[in-house]
Specification:
The protein is an all-alpha fold and 287 residues long. Helices cover 76% and strands 0% of the residues. The longest helix is centred in the last third of the chain and has 30 residues, at 199-228.
């Protein structure tokens, strides 16, 4: 992979990570397009390219850390204080500390449900990377879910009403989103809304569980590279990571603005159009 290709893929990831249109599907489609035009990069379904995709996903985690730096710092500070009090046997934890500990446990549970579904199906899901027509089908499903979220009645479940059931549903949605074309943010936010969570908390819980999920998946894929004794070029990884992180900051601000105003249906038109373009491109031999 060349540095320019890494820049292009980093831009694609940074833009589409937070828009609920499946950044992975866009990465895979651009990779197919580049390979069709003579690029020497490995195929999208290869262990090396999946690792690259995960590294640029980690780049966009930096974007989330920047945009949510204040609530994230407050959450972590309260969490560590609560854990410290618990370790010391303190019995006077405040209400905020108890809520933070509860949300941390629910986040871990959601990630566990993601792994419970996604890990056994990892090889099956990765086969979709080589099948643009299957990605077109999953994009259609994403569009339907996005349209549905905008016509839902007002959601009323706040942070204190989020329980194991809501966490499990969101975690399962995140596991299904390992399929290219099923947007991780779109799936988790949609399923959070389906369980009654308010839009703000569905979004923030979705972004919260992205941190351990993406970092864990990246580590597992790195171990896969080691097991297969494969090497990857460091410079494209670093370039893709940095570009995705920078571009992602702006994209996340736009997505939050649209989400809070129930404007996700606009993305439905986009993913449906993209699905049609994919089908035409496959039949024309463009990808």
């Amino acid at each position: 992979m060349t540095v320019l290709e890494a820049v292009l893929l980093g831009i694609v990831q940074g833009i589409f990570m937070f828009f609920p249109v499946s950044s992975t599907s866009h990465l895979v489609l651009v990779q197919h397009w580049l390979i069709e035009r003579g690029s020497a990069m490995p195929p999208p379904e290869s262990a090396e390219m999946i690792f690259f995709d995960l590294v640029v996903h980690v780049g966009t985690l930096v974007s989330m850390a920047v945009v949510f730096r204040k609530p994230l710092a407050h959450f972590l500070g309260t969490l560590f204080t609560g854990l410290g009090n618990r370790w010391q046997g303190g019995g006077n934890r405040g209400d905020r500390e108890r809520l933070t500990l509860k949300l941390a446990v629910l986040g871990i549970f959601a990630v566990f449900m993601t792994g419970l579904l996604g890990f056994p199906l990892k090889a099956l899901f990765e086969e979709v990377f080589a099948q643009p027509l299957m990605i077109a089908g999953t994009l259609v499903i994403t569009g339907i879910l996005l349209w549905w979220t905008d016509i839902l009645p007002r959601r009323t479940r706040g942070l204190r009403q989020i329980g194991p059931w809501q966490a499990a549903v969101v975690g399962i949605a995140q596991g299904l989103a390992l399929l290219p074309g099923l947007s991780r943010s779109g799936m988790t936010i949609a399923f959070g809304l389906f369980t009654g969570m308010k839009r703000r908390w569905a979004a923030e819980f979705s972004f919260f569980i992205a941190f351990p999920t993406i970092l864990g998946a990246t580590l597992l894929q790195f171990l896969e590279l080691v097991r297969l004794d494969l090497e990857v070029a460091i410079l494209p990884l670093v370039v893709g990571f940095v570009v995705a992180a920078v571009v992602g900051v702006g994209a996340l601000h736009v997505v939050l603005h649209l989400l809070y105003r129930a404007r996700f249906r606009f993305f439905s038109y986009y993913v449906w159009t993209l699905a049609v373009v994919i089908v035409i491109s496959v039949h024309q031999g463009w990808i």
